[in-house]
Amino acid sequence: MSFSKDFLWGGATAANQYEGGWDQGGKGVSSSDCCTRGSRTQPRKVTYKTSDGVVHADMMFGLDAPEDAVFGCYEGFDYPSHEGADFYHRYKEDIALMGEMGYKTFRMSINWTRIFPLGYEEEPNEEGLKFYDDVFDECLKHGIKPLVTLSHYETPVGLTNKWGSWVDARTIECFCRYVKTVGERYKGKVEYWLTFNEINCLGFGGWMAAGVPSRDPQKIADAAKHQLIASAKAVQILHAIDANNKVGNMIGYGMIYPHTCAPRDVLKAWSSFNGSYFYCDVQARGYYPAYKLKEYERNGIEFSLTEEEKETLKNGTVDFISFSYYMSNCASDDPEVLANQGGNMMFGVKNPYLKASDWGWQIDPTGLRLSLDYMYDRYQLPLMVVENGLGAQDQVEEDGSIHDSYRIDYLRDHIKAMKDAIEIDGVELWGYTPWGCIDLVSASTGEMHKRYGFVYVDYQDDGTGQGDRSKKDSFDWYKKVISSNGEDLD
């Protein structure tokens, strides 16, 4: 068998995109709650008010707000995370569907603002703690082990408005208080933890990953340092609470190919990889890599670590590495190529050998095998693929059926790539949780229209729909994959 007998098959979601109930149960406002709905052509925006009383909405990616900005939710804007897919009220129904598919694990996040509404309180919100007690109990009832992300694009806006969120070192203490609270509360219920979701997203904008309303390189470097220290402290806290806890990191990862075999393109691809490797290097190895220190030096970024901080990073390395993989990119150092680039999302050069999704994300299962090989060779730690999937426009037929053969094809090819990485390359892989196992709001565009799930959720971007759940063809296919432990992919 390619996959181990205790391989963790499941699916992945995030509270900010799925949970809803944004102002219920004592929950506070998170960074995602302030993000408007967007589309393929209209970027998501972040709302704030300045001291003159004027409400502004600036682009989420590339946000650079004035110092007097007060972030929040204001009338006249559509905030999709406020309702999400309503897991807050329908978690029993949804977890039952996951149990029917045979999930071994369910990757989800705790919304920090449901536990500490402003982020800096001394005492937690009991109603929020009770909600996750109920969710975890429901998972365990169905034989599903929770895989919990502690911070998944859900920074308390209270911390942003108070002192700039992760730019300020005081946020470390607030995060550690939160980690200690949930670690102690859910001891025996949660065994697998992830610290920060796609922590390397800090590299192209501070808001999504850290609630930092700035692109200033110095502030991003400071926020990264504070998150990396907080991650290391979280590992130590959770290990001290329960020796059975397994704590991993999580980065956004994808193969980066040189656009040509020109040496300058090869060098460009290699340097581009460091945008992902940097965070993982610190979390897995326990120290800042030389190439990052040199980059800071070249760019005039002030950086230092105390001896205590160095010890924290050294003693707080992760037990395993997890990452998201959706696509690959090409890198070029040719100005003419860059002037006509048309790759994935906001970066990369299009690969002429690959097909793309409706949203321009190029489909490359071989890139997943290579990613597993690169990561395992570099770190020699167990791996988990905790996001992978195809965002598509699903069509509900007159009889209510949803034929998503394109999603099955995508997932089948990526599972085959994982099998090859295990069987041929010797990679140690612990689990696989495809993204958006049930339809939810897209993080990049804020749409419900961009669907990933095995289960269709009847919410539309125009506000219509009752939230009814319907199985897609991929539901029964993935159920078969799990029951056969990845051997039956037809």
Automatic annotation (TrEMBL):
Keywords: Glycosidase, Hydrolase. Signal peptide: none annotated. InterPro entries: GH, GH_1_N_CS, Glyco_hydro_1. Pfam families: Glyco_hydro_1. Belongs to the glycosyl hydrolase 1 family. This is Family 1 glycosylhydrolase. It comes from Holdemanella hominis.
